[in-house]
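User: Here's a chain of 432 residues. Predict its fold as tokens.
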Amino acid sequence: MATKETLNTQSNDSSFSHILDELQWRGLVALSTDEKELRAALSKPITFYCGFDPTAPSLHLGNLVQLLTMRRLQLAGHNPLALVGGATGLVGDPKPNSERTLNDRETVAAWVEKLAEQNRRFLDFDGKNAAQMVNNLDWTSEYSAIDFLREIGKHYRVGKMISKDAVSARLNSDAGISYTEFSYQIMQGLDFLELYRRYGCVMQTGGSDQWGNLTSGTDLIHKVEGKSVHLIATPLITNADGKKFGKSEGNAIWLDSELTSPYAMYQFWLNTDDADVIDRLKVFTFLTRDEIAEYEKSVAEEPFKREAQRRLALEVTELVHSKLEAESARDASLALFGSGDLASLDEKTLSSALAELPSAKLPRGAKIIEALVATGLVESNSEARRAIEQGAVSVNKVKIGSEDEALEPLSSMSLAVISKGKKNLAGIFFSG
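Assistant: Prediction complete.
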């Protein structure tokens, strides 16, 4: 977990005279309200917010974009409100293709606490412009259905509501859309109005795919209070091939170490394509413009060294977890795929790393051939024998010379690492 010490080391790039310039350089402004007015507003301290709905027990890398945008604004002197949606989480914003499954109140309440704790890792809740945690259930629960319709719903026009991208997509799908999810944009608009009234909040940040929901709040405040407020929407982060960022074979990269281990987090960033790594350094680290320029030069001239990827992996893993976890993940990666010493790793770190590789559970004394087949490194006993004969098989980085050799654990651990060639690795977890 990131610590107060980590927060204290963070700073914005002093080469930028205005926070909006830095956000734009880092590629964090896809859409916004009037730029001239926004720039003027950000020239003095303001209160702003970003919302996170508890639709899962953890935030993910897409949410990390928002958290780091909030942190950069906080470092520039602005006052963050971290909203965890105890109310909107009970409803859910419309997905493009289908209705969300509604979670029970106890589950949502538990996830609210988990997400609030994760927010505390990335924002400073002490000091002059301390962040504050808010929960929209606190004000939404005060409205009766009649009050909600009379005081808030009357300001919305159905024609405009159905023109929103998320709603329009669902109306044109076979699934349609329920009144529950259709009402989500009204609830989010109410959030901005309540935060404007309670905290003087005049700006919201969020993802560009949420633009329709974001403008719901600015429109409502303009109608009810006669005031103009501001929005910044970050772009949807995609890889150079156009695929949505933050997903790995359909699975999110979570900020919770129980769902995505520090090692898996490190490896995810280490595998960043050359075409994407500089953009990732801008968005996900606090490295300066000059530092990133050096890595851009390295990628262009010596991409095989992967210096930018290694720095990115170390920086983000430390940010999400801790310096110790980041260094342990780096050491495990070097030990498995480089010249590092496997025996120097602690069993927990190595076990976590092996959990990301093919693996098998076998009894002590099992034959090497059995292990190769069980882990899927080869398809048959005959293929296993050929690999051993060719000198392509190692256990714990020691080359195997005979098919008759038995598996031995690494040091005093209850596991072993078996490999076929340099890059095809698997883990063995001993039973009994």
